[in-house]
Structures are given as C-alpha cells and as structure tokens.
Amino acid sequence: MIETLQVIPAATLRAAATVIRHGGRYRLTALFANDERVINGNFAIYAIFFSKEDSAYKTIKAIINRDEPLEFPSLTPLMAAAAWYEREIHDLFGLTPVGHPDLRPLVLHENWPQGRYPLRKDFDPASLESGERIQYLVPPVQGEGVFEVPVGPIHAGIIEPGHFRFSQAGENIISLEAKLFFTHRGIEKSVEGLSFSKALFQTERICGVCSVANTLSYVQAVERLAATEVPVRAEYLRVLAAELERLYNHVGDIGNLCAGLGFAPGTSNGSRLKEQLMRLNERLTGNRFLRGWITLGGVTMDITREMVQDISRLLAGIMSELGELIGLLRDNDAFLDRVNTTGILPEQAVLDLGVVGVAARASGVDFDVRRDFPYAAYSSLSFHVPVYTKGDVAARLWVRADEAVESIKIIGQLLAGLPSGKLKSGLGSVEPYQAAFSVTESPRGSNLHWLMAGENNTIYRYFVRSASYSNWPALTVAVPGNIIPDFPLINKSFELCYACLDR
Q1: What DSSP assignment string belongs to 149-211?
Q2: pLDDT at residue 261, rounded to an integer
Q3: Which ranges carry the NADH-quinone oxidoreductase subunit D domain (predicted)?
Q4: pLDDT per position as a tens digit, 282-297
C-alpha cells in the first residue's frame, strides 16, 4: 500500500482535489478538520482519497492560515460524497465550506447555541448556557396532491432516534428527508488528552455490533504511530474476531430483513442462528460482543484446542442451517416479489456518494478493504468477494448471505493454519503531533480511524468515519419511487447504524 501527503493552502483545496481524482480513479473516503493552533497557529482540513487500482491512499492537508478567513472552498460541487463531511466541519469547528449547496446543521440540533464549536481546543462548555439557538429548516416539496408523512424520532420498538420526513404524491414517495445525530456522545472530544490505552475503552463502545472493527482500526492506527510489530498469532486471532463479528451481524441482518416484510420463519431462524453465534462469542471472550479481545500490540486472550473444536462444530451447523434458510428465501415467490426491484441504489450513486460495504457491492462496485488493502492476516487467506449488480433489496440480501458463507470458510482456514507464538508486543513511545490512520472492513463496510498523537502517548485529535456515515445518505436515493410500507424493508437492507453517527 502506498500513502502520500500533500500540504497546500486552503484556497487551492478544490483544485488539488480535482487533480487527485483523475476522473474518478481516486475516491474520497474521509474529510475532516483539526484545530492545530497550539501546534502551528492554524486550522487544517484533511481530505483522504483512495484508489483500488493503484493500491494507494493520498491525503491532502489544507492549511487555513491564522490571518485568513476561516473558510475553504467546498468540495461538494465536485463530489457529492463531501456534503456531510463539510456540514460536520462547519458545525464542530466553525470553518465555512464556501460554495456548499446545503449548509444546514448536521450534527448540532436546535438546542445548541449558534457560534459554539465543540471541537475547537478553546471550547468552553459553560458558553452553552446562553446564545441564540440554531435554526433547522426542512425544504418543502410542493405541488398538487403532495403531502408529508413525518416518522420519528421516537419509534415503536427498540430503535435509536431518527426523524424521517416523507413527501408523497399518492402512495409513491417523492423524497425523503432524514434528520439524525439525536444522541451524539462527543466521543471524539471526550478522548482528547487521554492515553491510548484509556481511549481504547471508548473506541470499543462507539457501536455495539462493530466493536471489533472499531477497535481494530483504532489499535492499528496507534501501532503505526508507535512502529509496533504485532505477533503473527495475534494477527490471526484478530481476523478470527473480525469474521465472527461479521458472521453474527450478517446472519442477524438476514433475519431482520425478513422482519421488515413480516416473513416470520426467516425472522425466527435468523434470530436463532445469531443467538448461537453470540453465545459462542461469550464462551470465547466472556461477553457477547467480543469486547476486550483486541488490544494495543496484539490480543489479550488465546484460544485452546477445545475452543477450536467448539468453533468448528458450531460453524458446520450454522453453514448447513444458513443454506436451508437462504434456500427457503430463494424459493418463496411472495418473498421475492417484495425484495426484487425494491429500493434500487444505482452504481453511479454509490460512486458519487462514497457508499461502502454490502450496499456498494450489491450495486456492482467491487471493493473490499480486506482484499484490496489487506491488514492483519488477511493477505495470507483466500476468500471470494461477492458482487451483485441490481442494487435492490434482494441484491443486498444475497451479498450478506454469500459473505456469511465466506466468513465461515475464512474461519476454517484460520483454525487449520493458526500459527504459534506470543499474543502481544509492547507499545513504544510516539512522537507528539504525528498522525496515522487505519481502515478495516466492518460488517457494514470500510471503517476509517485517524488520530494525531499529543504529548506522552496521548490523543490530540481523534476522527472516526464509520461505514454507516458513508451509507446513510444513500437511503434518501434508494427510497424515492417506492411506497412507505417498503421503507422498513429498504432501511433494514442497508442495516444502517445510528450509534456510528453519534460518536
């Protein structure tokens, strides 16, 4: 993998991004800001691009000089994927992306006072007690026979808050306006100044069902800063944890998708198989979400020969029963009638919005970080990346089903070829204000963690870009043209996470 860094004045950001894109060869994967005034007196905008063909990442660091206006040229007119990032930068840092077509608040809501920017280093929480509150306007859809249907943010069931406003003409949805970030926890702010080891506790809890993916991205970024070589056995066990996480997510998501259209046999079987996998997680690590296994420098726990046999027996049964479940779905005409041609996400929308993971591969975009930018022990393993082209609910379902089978095969390879050796290496000291990032493939897609070190192995700035952050905007593209009863089905087919936004 090749990585480059280009430092430029902020005024030339759009021109530099245009050159890097090479007509779409490089795609934007993250865009964020950093308050570096205590280091050099400036703010900085970081834009990270990647190319599968070149096996390369390119980073632009755009400097906003202390004597210049706190603004930078918006990349959104050039690439739609930048839209949310720039709105978040404006909310959290007060830096204005000039030329952005929709600069409404994204992360901050109406109870937040204007002019208070929480990720600036000089932010004072006491300043929140006064000030004019933020305004949030919902653009109306007008025309004869058009009406709006508001849903949420409080939902009927165990679900996190999100407000969805549908504009309709008859039964057909014209547009969907999604308002999220209702329970933002400020994790990126709260870890500032913490040691790498203390911050790990919060990283593991960004999202319940992506604990391994988040932890792995974080520790790999820290290990790169510290030039730490992780033992080979630990790398294999990390992949085992990651694939067990992918497997229980995919199996559970298949059941959840069946629930979205009221197909009870699929829902029950998906839930039952997921429960078996989560009980396996608990036997291996002491908890159902595989927390506490991956740590800085390696892993905390080994697996015994008896555990290997236990995993193998269980997964053999899961493989057989999952095959029966998928066969049941593929042979059910009523089920197929609901999922085929429903919630189509075109391939071009995937490329424009920077969609990742299952949603991208279901629309014909052949990209998987495990294969294209291998990490941990993935370069030593053989596996197939399933890709479909129709981009509908059915395609996203079949991608998950195929990936679940591949995860079982990967785990079989791991257990058969698990090398001996130690589990953990020591972490060296890190030079202050050095930065690194790491990308892993979570069950939902690529997951990027970037951090800059502070003094004495602490965190100066931590940025997390989850797969759900990249994929939520795609929902507003896939839903129009369908009917409201299909929305739960379409939504579940993306399996988007609210907590991954509220980090």
Answers
A1: EEE-SS-SSS----EEEEEEETTEEEEEEEE--TT---HHHHTTT-BHHHHHHHHTTS-STTH
A2: 86
A3: 271-425, 431-503
A4: 999 999 999 999 999 9
- 38 and 152, same domain (yes or no): no
Rounded CA separation 153/134 (Å): 18
Quick check: 24 and 350 in contact, CB under 8 A? no
pTM: 0.96
Number of CB atoms found within 10 A of residue 162's CB: 21
Whether 265 is covered by a domain: the verdict is yes
User: How do beta strands 96-98 and 27-36 pair?
Assistant: unpaired
Q: What is the CATH number of the domain that holds 8?
A: 3.30.460.80
The residue written with tokens 């082209």 in the block is 389
CA distance linking residue 59 with residue 64, whole number of Å: 16
Q: Are 463 and 89 in contact (CB under 8 A)?
A: no
Strands 459-465 and 445-453: antiparallel
Residue 196 shares a structural domain with residue 316: yes
Residue 453 CA: distances (Å) to CA of 4, 226, 227, 389 = 19, 10, 13, 42
